[in-house]
Amino acid sequence: MQARSSTGRTFAAHAVLITWTLIALFPVFVIVVNSFKSRKAIFADPLSLPLPSNFDMVGYATVMHQGDFFQYFLNSMIVTVGSLFCVLLFGAMAAFALSEYRFKGNTLLGLYLALGIMIPIRLGTVAILQMMVASGLVNTRTALVLVYSAQGLPLAVFILAEFMRTVSDDLKNAGRIDGLSEYTIFFRLVLPLVRPAMATVAVFTMIPIWNDLWFPLILAPGEEVKTITLGSQVFIGQFVTDWNAVLAALSLAILPVLILYLLFSRQLIRGITAGAVK
Amino acid sequence: MGALTLTAVTKSFGKTDVIKGVDLTVADGEFCVFVGPSGCGKSTLLRMIAGLEDVSDGEVAIDGVRVNETAPAKREIAMVFQSYALYPHLTVRDNMGLALKQAGESRAAIGESVNKAAGMLSLDALLDRRPAELSGGQRQRVAIGRAIVRTPKIFLFDEPLSNLDAALRVATRIEIAKLHRDLKATMIYVTHDQVEAMTLADKIVVLRAGRVEQVGKPMELYNNPANTFVAGFIGSPQMNMLSGAALGIKAHTLGIRPEHLAISRDKGDLAGRVSHVEKLGGETLVYVQVDGQGLLTVRLLGEYDWQVDEPVHLTPDQTRAFLFDADGLRIRG
Hints:
The complex is a heterodimer.
Chain A: H1 2-34, H2 39-44, H3 58-65, H4 69-100, H5 106-114, H6 125-134, H7 141-164, H8 169-177, H9 182-193, H10 195-211, H11 214-219, H12 228-232, H13 243-273
Helix pairs in contact in A: 1-13, 3-13, 4-7, 4-10, 7-10, 8-9, 10-13
Chain B: E1 4-13, E2 16-26, E3 31-35, H1 42-50, E4 57-62, E5 65-66, E6 77-80, H2 92-102, H3 107-120, H4 136-149, E7 154-158, H5 166-183, E8 186-191, H6 194-200, E9 203-208, E10 211-216, H7 218-223, H8 228-233, E11 240-243, H9 244-247, E12 253-256, E13 261-264, E14 270-279, E15 283-290, E16 294-301, E17 311-316, E18 322-324, E19 330-331
Parallel strand pairs in B: 3-8, 3-9, 6-7, 7-8
Antiparallel strand pairs in B: 1-2, 1-4, 4-5, 9-10, 11-12, 12-18, 13-17, 14-15, 14-17, 15-16, 18-19
Helix pairs in contact in B: 2-3, 2-4, 3-4
């Protein structure tokens, strides 16, 4: 009885998960499949797999020839990794201070830092643009890194502070008695123990940055600093859209972010399975 | 060398006073145990000595030198934690040697100290393992080893045996006692377990709600408690507290240890009924329900057959009884 009901439950759970996976992957599947087909075949039968009769790499060829796609990739990569680095480092440091030290206004500061979760950063676009113009950062990748760091920090501080409260006080105190500096305690003792939380924050921070079109369009539309999402837009016209090229560009754009995700998810699993403190 | 002096030490978190003025001297080489119920401030006091908590007022001095503003690492103390607190990413050898490495000792000197400490605690075979690969008892031995390696002036133990099972607890307790004899170092040990306090201490400090209730040698506290709290806390099973009015004596409370309460089927001062019997082999504990006095414990050496619900009479040995006034303070004389 017990076994049967649990088998049934497992089956139901897997059915739900598989259905969700299919729904979530369907657009990706359509994009990748159609990027290998001729324009005619895309419109005639969008769901069919690429066959020898309609196989066409013209989209990839266009992408490679028009514009500097490698540069766009590199820009996206630099901006994403740079922002991620800032968000994780400064977010973790702020979280450590909030969770570890008793000082006046601790709670208030924590709330202030978490406020950004509820206020969309895009509301401040005009002010941000004015600031970037004033500081001469328009059309630089630095501008994007700064904006994305600001965008990612609130959630990072919030999640990491919660996790850091769970790290054993005894361990930190043992470090203090052994003469470790607060920085060493933070980097060597606390950070490795909150690695799963860091991976979660990294994934949640990374994907919106990679996919963002808004800020690259406004702050860094220049040819040499364009990101891949913005770069793909050249193929979408008001009257004519080069679907082959758009689909090819999007397919290529999935790759780096997928690699980054795989890196972090491995860290995430390692973090969960690593030996506990006690 | 490692004498400790606390002078009017207090600690407040916001408006809550956790430690309300503690004066204490621990002589060099003494084994001092802080004992008390949870929340009495004993761990906080230990952390203040370690420098992990600020002292709100008063002075902490080691060897006569004020250390209130000294960083924990510079106080020449070592601490053993309840949760072991080993560094998960380091091997046993590196865990034990880290403090010396931070202090800038040479590699050879560190290796020598680590090997010596490992030898004392029979950890030689485990030196290259990581904490995750050790059992609870082994981890606590490593934690103790980490403290020994530093050759501190004062060892601090924060409930080091609480996470171990009963058999290991006894074994580790004996090991700590032996260590104290071998090292002749000053040790301050925090526990809520009065058995650990009685068996290890040269001097016991009984704390309640941030105040020192009594300081003394284990047998002094046992034979000469200053108030009902100390009388009830030291000794197991707990001392019986009888209401003086019901006994027809002047004192508010009469305290009598379970071993000093005679039990008889025919006659005695207090009539009651056996409510439960615990046979432990070497001793028998009889719980007797007495009207107006509650549940009293009688401790008999050896095996005895008392039946539940049997009517019995109890007689306290007046020469071993303690009298207390309405405030719980001992009436002497």
